[in-house]
From TrEMBL:
<dbReference type="InterPro" id="IPR029063">
    <property type="entry name" value="SAM-dependent_MTases_sf"/>
</dbReference>
<protein>
    <submittedName>
        <fullName>Uncharacterized protein DUF938</fullName>
    </submittedName>
</protein>
<dbReference type="InterPro" id="IPR010342">
    <property type="entry name" value="DUF938"/>
</dbReference>
<dbReference type="Pfam" id="PF06080">
    <property type="entry name" value="DUF938"/>
</dbReference>
Length: 204
């Protein structure tokens, strides 16, 4: 008889390090009538649990590729919160945009992991599906005018491309232009610790 493999609860040290500063940015930019967040690429599930615990008025919807669901669910089960929901299966270019009336789209450290063609598809999907006034927050490293903001980000880009040539730190100007095309202009570019940025867009 085949027994299913036991899934160990995943853990990301970088999530642990950045979650407090990310929470402060969320608190500063959330509006009083914002009720639901859709997280694209929930990864381990750590961010979802931390933010849901600290923002009890928000309903936090996780999403990711199917392979990451079991790990995310372990975090959700342990936290036992009523305002964070089990992950929706969402693989860019394969699955339809989640049927969620989101006030905010949050995505951390995804744009440099997925192929650039998927980045474009993701942004197109946002343009087609987000309601007027919805916010989009992208967190992670970016290049400016083709230049890395630090030597460590340049090294990180090489490391990413060594794993998969389609990965890589994205150009800030390219992302802003793609979002503009979808009527999602940049509202703020916030410097974050460890040479990361938080880019905040709003749907017109």
């Amino acid at each position: 008889m085949n027994h299913p493999e036991k899934v160990e609860k995943p853990f990301s040290p970088s999530c642990e390090r950045n979650q407090s500063v990310l929470l402060e940015v969320l608190k500063q930019h959330l509006r009083t009538d914002d009720k639901q967040v859709l997280e694209i690429g929930s990864g381990t599930g750590q961010h979802a649990v931390f933010f849901a615990e600290n923002l009890p008025a928000l309903l936090w919807q996780t999403s990711d590729i199917k392979a990451n669901h079991a790990g995310i669910q372990l975090w959700l089960d342990e936290a036992n919160l009523n305002n964070v929901q089990s992950p929706i299966e969402y693989e860019i270019g394969k699955d339809q945009w989640p049927d969620i009336k989101a006030d905010l789209i949050f995505s951390a450290n995804t744009l440099h992991i997925i192929p650039f063609e998927w980045v474009k598809l993701l942004i197109q999907s946002m343009g087609q599906n987000l309601r007027k006034g919805a916010l989009v927050m992208f967190y992670g490293p970016f290049k400016y005018q083709g230049e890395f903001t630090s030597a460590s980000n340049a090294d990180f880009d090489l490391w990413l491309k060594d794993i998969d040539p389609l990965r890589g730190v994205r150009d800030f100007e390219t992302i802003v232009a793609l979002m503009d095309e979808q009527r999602l202009p940049l509202r703020q570019d916030i410097n974050m610790p460890a040479n990361n940025q938080m880019l905040i867009f709003e749907r017109l």
